[in-house]
Amino acid sequence: MKYVDLNCDMGESFGAYTLGNDAEMLKYVSSANIACGFHAGDPGTMRQTVKLALEYGTAIGAHPGLPDLAGFGRRKMSISPQEAYEMTVYQIGSLWAFVRSEGGVMRHVKPHGELYNMAAADSGLAEAIAEAVYKVEPELVLYGLSGSELIRAGEKAGLRTASEVFADRTYQQDGSLTPRRIPGSVLTDDQEAARQVIRMVSEGKVRSVQNIDISIQADTVCIHGDGAHAVPFAAAVSGSLKQAGIVVQAVGLTR
């Protein structure tokens, strides 16, 4: 029997702005990556999302990003490894306090947006993030792009890692995600995305935009929750996995 984690970025509303439908998405995912106030989120949203995740029995993780509310953490920013370390520790700590105060346990850390992309390719940033996670709590699972520097850094630091794949993104032949600025970077067809996910989990393969099969490790699958079609998309992917006999379960639980 095969298992896979379905994760979703959540708690990204802030101030007067509401993003995503977290309560509905929690019906289909096993792990929630909760924004920590840098790229999105605020104290009230963080607490409410933690409470929701605990009600659904969903594994909770910190989702630290670059300090860029205006750009939703998706713009490049020049930061040093020391800055990456410090902003990661800061954001894990802020969410940990809410999780602890609500009687929960934090399970994982997944960097957001451009911080995630930079750490996938930059070993210095990756090692700084991995060190931050390890020093806060060595039992936390570090999520990173499959085959990336972040996964290698996490393993080197002694962390358990979860290699992440994306349900709704296309891939380049080097295993990287197609940049969002390029047409065709995002899959919009539910069935096409579901087929891609099942193949990644079952066969460890994905077809790149160059029409070449590449090997990929799929411990956890990201489903974005901030699109207008997010809930039906999540339902389709979750349903297809179950139909294929693949059990949806959080990383780190007994199997």
UniProtKB/TrEMBL annotation:
Signal peptide: none annotated. Transmembrane segments: none annotated. GO terms for biological process: carbohydrate metabolic process. InterPro entries: Glyco_hydro/deAcase_b/a-brl, LamB/YcsF/PxpA-like. Keywords: ATP-binding, Hydrolase, Nucleotide-binding. It catalyses: 5-oxo-L-proline + ATP + 2 H2O = L-glutamate + ADP + phosphate + H(+). Pfam families: LamB_YcsF. Belongs to the LamB/PxpA family. Forms a complex composed of PxpA, PxpB and PxpC. NCBIfam families: PRK05406.1-3, PRK05406.1-5. Catalyzes the cleavage of 5-oxoproline to form L-glutamate coupled to the hydrolysis of ATP to ADP and inorganic phosphate. HAMAP family: PxpA. This is 5-oxoprolinase subunit A. It comes from Paenibacillus thalictri. The lineage of its organism: Bacteria, Bacillati, Bacillota, Bacilli, Bacillales.
